[in-house]
Amino acid sequence: MNIALRARRALLSGLIIALSSLPAFSQSSSLQGMVSDGQGANIPETVITIVNLNTSTARKVVSSAIGAYSFVQVPPGTYKLEAQKPGFRTLVQNVTLQIDVPLTLNLALEVGQVSETINVTEEVASERRPRACP
Fold first, then answer.
1. CA nearest 69: which of 99, 87, 42?
2. 3-state class of 120 per DSSP?
3. Which of 18, 59, 79, 82 is in the most buried spot, having the most CB atoms within 10 Å?
């Protein structure tokens, strides 16, 4: 009986230690979603940055070829999210992440000012007049 009681106590102690260490590993969250335009078309290669407003710690990802992005193992807190893509207006918004509560946030970018610059490198030929015959 004494050995069985010791075995149970050891098992119970091990279980308590294992369960008490779990919160240390799960003190994070995640953020994922899709980036699209106003028409619903996916936007690849968008730079998405999150900055923790309390610590100023920043993380950056680039959306995939289908517009998907993901931040994993993110400490809980309030973040400033910024999405940038040439040809689109920069999207900025605050996001609050909670412990063990994954957040899906789809981002819709608006078309911005599109400008083209045309550089002409060829010189204009001088005007030639035909010579009068003598």
1. 42
2. coil
3. 79
For residue 29, what are the β-bridge partners? 74
Burial of 18-35, coded b for 16+ CB within 10 Å and e otherwise, reads eeeeeeeeeeebebebbb
Q: pLDDT tens, 83-99?
A: 999 999 999 999 999 99
**3-class secondary structure for 70-100?**
EEEEECCEEEEEEEECCCECCEEEEEEEECC
Give the pTM.
0.66
Q: SS3 breakdown of the chain: % helix, strand, coil, rounded to 5? A: 20, 40, 45
